[in-house]
Write a structure and sequence with these properties.
Rossmann fold; 13 strands; 430 residues
């Protein structure tokens, strides 16, 4: 297929070519913008220049093959752009404190190449106040003034890797900016590239708060069902069946599901940004902290289910061959950010289990080459990721390989069929 040529006069520089930035850069190029793709990782840039996606995603690979990107590690190319979009990570540190070093570093690189008329859009997830309190002062060290000489806008990224229904193109977005002029300009940009509603917010802080509460909402509701799972387990109630029943109510109920832990770069991270910012402003988010505590406890709870199941057949985790199914945080993607698999693995190592690990999307971290090999070597299984290969596997193979215990951390396997094979089955709340 012939590559799409850029036709618009405006240049767009996208900083940070991960799960958010690279798809955005491809979309900008497809829509006719002269697109500069910038990242500090030379290996990633080398692949992109060859038309190879550094992210395991068939759709993204096809998009990358059909557009022209100017990929570089040289931030001076920013001077050639009119619009700069920042898509760098905003992680937390080991103490759960927001780590804005990547964002500050990107802003400092922009500052060195800032010119009048630039529109800087921050897509990275940040807590309310970051654009005005951190981004703006760094950029204004040039002597140029936000809202006058250049504009700052925030359009929080919304992307769900692997989702076939909702993609970067059709997910509605919100935009806030440092000036009305900047907001209108950012609004026009996103309306040019998206097939979705783009809602202007009254302030940049409101735009920042939007993404934070979206993911905090999910974290709280997941914590609720995770706590129910532990409660219902003691009462002998299958929570999944209860959720199905509750979901028949056509209003005022939104199903969320329990699991062995919350992963990804959003849900287990964003609440800490809100907690931290609220504390700096004199407010203590007790509810949010409790939700994080509950969800952070689920990997240990999952391992505890395994311990009890093995003990019921007079076995210990120590010395037992245990297969871990999945490393990525969600099904059928290679994204391992904040995956609970790593904590589960570490806990099992401390208990001196003999571990076999397999993920078809993360083969470089797998210790076996296939699911068949893992089943042959394992006595017990802990399913962490609901990959299609795992959820649709032939359960008869479990019996053939003398698997004695299955801990279903995603409740995606047929409980009754596994139990019918004489295998101990434990789900999260099942």
């Amino acid at each position: 297929m012939k590559k799409i040529q850029s036709i618009k006069k405006e240049g767009v520089a996208v900083i940070g070519l991960g799960y958010v930035g690279l798809p955005l850069a491809c979309l900008c190029a497809e829509k006719g913008y002269r697109t500069y793709a910038i990242d500090i990782d030379p290996k990633k840039i080398k692949l992109i220049k060859k038309g190879i996606s550094p992210i395991c995603d068939k759709n993204l690979q096809e998009e990358l093959s059909n557009v022209n990107l100017i990929a570089t590690t040289n931030f001076r190319i920013i001077k050639k752009a009119n619009i700069i979009v920042v898509c760098v990570p905003t992680p937390i540190d080991k103490n759960y404190n927001p780590d804005l070093k990547p964002l500050k570093s990107a802003c400092q690189a922009i500052q060195k190449n800032l010119k009048k008329g630039h529109l800087i859009i921050i897509e990275s997830t940040i807590n309310p106040g970051v654009c005005e309190e951190i981004v703006q002062p760094i950029l204004e060290e040039t002597g140029l003034k936000a809202g006058i000489d250049f504009d700052i806008a925030h359009c929080p990224e919304r992307i769900d890797p692997g989702n076939k229904k909702w993609s970067l193109r059709n997910i509605p977005r919100v935009v806030g900016a440092s000036s009305d002029k900047g907001c209108k300009r950012a609004l026009a940009f996103y309306k040019n590239i998206l097939d979705a509603e783009v809602r202007p917010m009254k302030s940049i802080k409101e735009a920042e708060a939007t993404k934070i509460i979206e993911n905090t909402f999910r974290d709280i509701n997941i914590a609720f069902v995770n706590e129910l799972a532990r409660s219902f387990d003691k009462m002998g109630i299958d929570l999944i069946e209860v959720i199905k029943g509750s979901s028949t109510k056509p209003f005022a109920f939104l199903p969320h599901y329990p699991g062995c832990g919350v992963g990804g770069h959003c849900i287990p991270v964003d609440p800490y940004y809100l907690i931290d910012q609220a504390q700096k402003n004199g407010f203590n988010h007790k509810f949010l902290k409790l939700a994080r505590e509950i969800n952070n406890s689920m990997p240990a709870y999952t391992v505890d289910l395994l311990i009890k199941a093995l003990n019921s057949i007079n076995k210990s985790v120590k010395g037992t061959n245990i297969g871990v199914l999945g490393l990525s945080y969600k099904s059928d993607v290679d994204d391992t950010r904040e995956s609970p698999a790593y904590e589960i693995i570490e806990l099992l190592k401390k208990l001196k289990a003999n571990l076999y690990i397999y993920d078809p999307f993360v083969k470089d971290q797998s210790t076996v080459d296939s699911l068949d090999e893992l089943l042959k070597k394992s006595e017990a299984l802990v399913l962490v990721t609901a990959h299609k290969e795992f959820s649709e596997m032939n359960l008869i193979e479990l019996k053939k390989n003398d698997i004695k215990v299955v801990i279903d951390g995603r409740n995606c396997l047929d409980k009754e069929k596994i139990k019918g094979l004489g295998i101990i089955y434990k789900g999260i709340g099942r």
